[in-house]
Design brief:
Length: about 120
């Protein structure tokens, strides 16, 4: 049976595991958005589509999903997206990428509020 040494994130100790027990850690970046009331539904959908297109431009993105809530429990935050990156060090690369900066330039002023959450899993 093959073994590999991995260093866990969060300053955990380095341990040796059989290959079949090694879990691959990734960074999950979640954003939920509350648009200003005057922003049309068409523009909101355009922003969502723009988020999804970032996967084509930013090679660090492993997966990207986005959509509008269908429940009433979101306290006015109607849109959300989840971007998965390979490692913690990819987050600043993603954040500063010209495609991401272009999204912010185009849409940031249209949001009443944004909440971002990043974690490793």
């Amino acid at each position: 049976m093959g073994y590999t040494r991995i260093s866990m994130t969060g300053d955990w100790t380095t341990r040796t595991f059989p290959f079949h027990l090694v879990a691959i850690m990734k960074l999950v970046h979640i954003v939920i958005a509350k648009f200003k009331p005057e922003i049309s539904e068409e523009i909101r959908q355009e922003a969502c589509n723009h988020v999804l297109s970032l996967k084509n431009d930013i090679p660090q993105i492993l997966t990207c999903t986005a959509g509008k809530t269908f429940t009433e429990r979101s306290k006015g935050y109607e849109w959300g997206w989840v971007v998965e990156l390979e490692k913690k060090e990819d987050l600043p690369v993603y954040a500063e990428h010209p495609a991401h900066q272009g999204f912010l330039t185009k849409y940031k002023h249209m949001f009443e509020d944004l909440i971002a959450l990043d974690y490793m899993c």
